[in-house]
């Protein structure tokens, strides 16, 4: 089972918007050294919405090739078109991804039955292990625990990234999964508490800038070391907060540029972090010696 700190990796870009392959390779090396448990390639933090299908598939393939099985690669293959999600998921399987992460269809606002049929169709079409991704704050649709429970009966749906940030909801999802599939946090601010409740890991934005610290806090929480996990989590909370001052991945890319890990460039309609927030992000990085 994939577990621990799972980075929702940014897609580094050059100033003309092209993928920065050299920086991507360096980031993968960084995560290997820092103890990251798995990589999410071209998830929503990786700006999947603005990468062309060929670029999307190329980034997944490069990540799989570079890591060469050292740690698992989870390919972001969600879409608001079921047929497109099937296409992307099949492409990820062909290049050797270990699993796929499928965000609920955004904008369409499907019913709960529509969500069930969407994910069922993808799972039946492509045999690769699949992880559901519920993030209603970004998609406009909320996959309810009853729907998660139905999908848990499908053999190759193996997990869910629960990103509501609501710990009561997280507890409900853990309960309905009842060991049938893994639960991962998708909200850095509440991830430690969800792991202490029984979640298997954190698909993390913060891990982009603090990979070793996230690997440590996840290991402590999964091991049930409540006191030490909460103490480290308290140190990390200011960083979690500032990385969402504007829409993700705007703050995290700016932070990584200050660390010299990438150029910080984004594709429109995303723009650079507003000047008013930059000192707060910088202060949070400095407080944890991340510069």
Question: Helices, strands, pairings?
Answer:
Blueprint: E1 4-8, H1 21-34, E2 38-41, H2 53-67, E3 73-76, H3 82-94, E4 99-103, H4 112-125, E5 130-134, H5 136-139, H6 145-151, E6 157-162, H7 167-177, E7 182-185, H8 188-197, E8 201-204, H9 211-222, H10 226-242, H11 250-258, H12 278-287
Parallel strand pairs: 1-2, 1-8, 2-3, 3-4, 4-5, 5-6, 6-7, 7-8
The rounded Rg comes to: 18 Å
Strand content: 5-15%
Strand runs, count: 8
Any idea of the CATH topology?
Answer: TIM Barrel
Termini Cα gap: 33 Å
Low-pLDDT runs of 5+ residues are: none
CATH superfamily: Aldolase class I
Identify the strand order in the major beta sheet: 1-2-3-4-5-6-7-8
Order of helices and strands: EHEHEHEHEHHEHEHEHHHH
CATH class: Alpha Beta
If you had to describe this structure to a student in words, what would you say it looks like?
The structure is a single chain. The two termini are 33 Å apart. The longest helix has 17 residues. The radius of gyration is 18 Å and the shape is globular. The model has no long low-confidence stretch (mean pLDDT 97). α4 runs parallel beside α6, α6 packs parallel to α7 and α8 packs parallel to α9. Strands 1-2-3-4-5-6-7-8 form an 8-stranded parallel beta barrel, surrounded by 5 helices. The protein has a single domain, classed as Alpha-Beta Barrel (TIM Barrel). With 291 residues, the protein is α/β, with parallel strands linked by helices. α8 links the parallel β7 and β8.
